[in-house]
Design a protein that fits this description.
Number of helices: 0
């Protein structure tokens, strides 16, 4: 079974930066690796995704121009560079993998990590 582990969360001031990492226990053979986030009392929402081919990336409108997703296939690791952070970015961030052709829906993802907390102060 695939196991995913997120790291890199923490507390930052508005306008600051964080880089999240998602490490897989083995090669997943998945089409996309995605990042999602969930704030208290809210539904889990899509943040960004990347294909292992390296040709496709997707971003939620709320993070375009601020977040960048990248991958290191040799190490089975995906990164999320978060710049210009805002208080509304505060949430638990999860990575996940899917073999589906749709990259933005959490319902299409098969395996999930335990999450890492990101808190942005104002």
């Amino acid at each position: 079974q695939v196991q995913l582990a997120e790291s890199g969360g923490g507390l930052v001031q508005a306008g600051g930066s964080l880089r999240l990492s998602c490490a897989a226990s083995r090669r997943t053979f998945s089409r996309y690796v995605g990042w999602f986030r969930q704030a208290p009392g809210k539904e889990r929402e899509f943040v960004a995704a990347i294909s292992w081919s390296g040709e496709s990336t997707f971003y939620a409108n709320s993070v375009k121009g601020r977040f960048t997703i990248s991958r290191d296939n040799a190490e089975n690791t995906v990164y999320l560079q978060m710049n210009s952070l805002k208080p509304e970015d505060t949430a638990v961030y999860y990575c996940a993998v899917t073999r589906d052709y749709t990259a933005t829906s959490p319902a299409r993802y098969d395996y999930w990590g335990q999450g890492t907390q990101v808190t942005v102060s104002s």
